[in-house]
Design a protein that fits this description.
Rossmann fold; 7-stranded mixed beta sheet; binds NADPH dihydro-nicotinamide-adenine-dinucleotide phosphate; alpha/beta; 345 residues; 6-stranded parallel beta sheet; 30% helix
């Protein structure tokens, strides 16, 4: 059994990790941290985990994380980077759900995240954990940068077109909507029910911190800098991301069968479902599951391609993808603990 610790077990992605890991056949949960709830039984705070997780929260400094085989950080940005080096030196493999190890250019990271990076050397060796792109490197990762939620939906949607060199990489557009759980469990005015319900708004149009992450990933695939307009929106959903992606086909590319391109690219991928031609995937169809559902369209047969990509931000956009990465890192069945039928309605 793989001994696993979770730092930040009271947050939305943390409790989602607990939901997935408590029924994982190869995982033994040994430490779950909280600063505020230390000493409390996990199932007293989260009755959904009664008879599944029989641990108490411990304070991060008392968690003996160095005794784990793997530690997930489900913490705000800037926490894992301070503790990862010590854990790695003790032979622990670190999976960070935050953004500390996602951006290779340290100056760029510091600009977007507004703090000094504490572990640049680990950024250089960290592996970006998008399995459908980086599976081989993930296997041996000591530090795993779990992708952001929007970047997962956007990159999976654009990948086949960019890998095949079919679209103009100078003018990509990602129009993405997220449920409110994307903002985390901490108290903030804009996530209060009366503020977020029955309303809909864009934010971060001038620049969102997921922009450099998406640009970095897609540029690597394209082999040249990619220009992207990324506009996130807050929707009155609890879970879910719906990304509508636009690209202009290059001359001659219109002859190709884009549906076949997508189906072939993701054939054999357990967690990417290319829907039948003409589909409109809905966030509900992936709720609580690790699946990304994608549909590719060419409206009126023109040269604009529209890709629809939906995920659950807390699962394929965070905790589920992190468990998928754990499975790959430890040579387990990639689907272990992740065989979940989406909840509907
Ligand atoms: N929500 C989402 O959809 C997604 C989130 N992410 C990323 O995952 C990370 C966690 O997000 P989310 O679960 O939403 O956040 P939450 O705000 O819901 O939870 C944060 C957790 O971190 C703990 N924590 C806060 N500060 C510290 C600290 N200094 N030391 C140790 N633990 C700390 C908190 O617990 P306590 O205060 O009890 O110690 C809490 O359990 C973030 O980096 C986020 O950006 C990534 C993809 C999607
Ligand atoms: C709705 C909402 O607020 N979403 C968050 C993004 C989700 C997130 O937690 O960001 P990471 O994936 O980088 O960790 C935001 O826009 O800041």
């Amino acid at each position: 059994m793989i001994k696993v610790g979770v730092v930040g077990g009271t947050g939305y992605t943390g409790v989602e990790l607990l939901r997935l890991l408590c029924r994982h056949p190869d995982v033994d949960l040994v430490a779950i941290t909280s600063r505020g709830e230390a000493g409390m039984a996990v199932s007293d705070i989260f009755p959904s985990l009664r008879h599944r997780v029989n641990l108490k929260f411990v304070a991060p400094q008392d968690a003996e994380l160095e005794k784990c085989d793997a530690v997930f950080f489900a913490t705000p940005n800037g926490i894992a980077m301070k503790q990862a080096a010590e854990l790695v030196a003790a032979g622990v493999r670190v999976i960070d759900l935050a953004a500390d190890f996602r951006i290779r250019d340290i100056a760029e990271w510091e600009k977007w995240y507004g703090m000094e990076h504490a572990a640049p050397a680990l950024v250089a060796e960290a592996v970006y954990g998008l399995p459908e792109l980086n599976r081989e490197q993930i296997r041996s990762a000591r530090v795993l940068a779990n992708p952001g939620c929007y970047p997962t939906a956007v990159q999976l949607g654009f990948l086949p077109l960019i890998e095949a060199g079919l679209i103009d990489c100078g003018h990509l557009i990602a129009d993405a909507k997220s449920g409110v759980s994307g903002a985390g469990r901490k108290a903030e005015i804009h996530t209060l029910l009366p503020e977020a319900a029955d309303s809909f708004k864009a934010y971060g149009v001038a620049g969102h911190r997921h922009l450099p992450e998406i640009r970095q990933g897609l540029s690597r695939v394209a082999g040249k800098p990619v220009e992207l307009t990324f506009v996130p929106h807050l929707t009155p959903l609890i879970r879910g991301i719906h990304a509508t992606l636009y690209g202009r086909l290059l001359p001659g590319a219109g002859e190709l069968d884009l549906q076949a391109l997508y189906e072939e690219r993701y054939a054999g991928e357990a967690f990417v479902d290319v829907m039948p031609a003409g589909s409109h995937p809905e966030t509900r169809s992936v709720r609580a599951s690790n699946i990304c559902r994608i549909a590719v369209h060419r409206p009126q047969g023109g040269d604009t391609v529209v890709v629809l990509s939906v995920i659950d931000n807390l699962v394929k956009g965070a905790a589920g993808q992190a468990v998928q990465n754990l499975n790959i890192m430890f040579g387990l069945d990639e689907e272990a603990g992740l065989d979940i039928v989406p909840v509907s309605p």
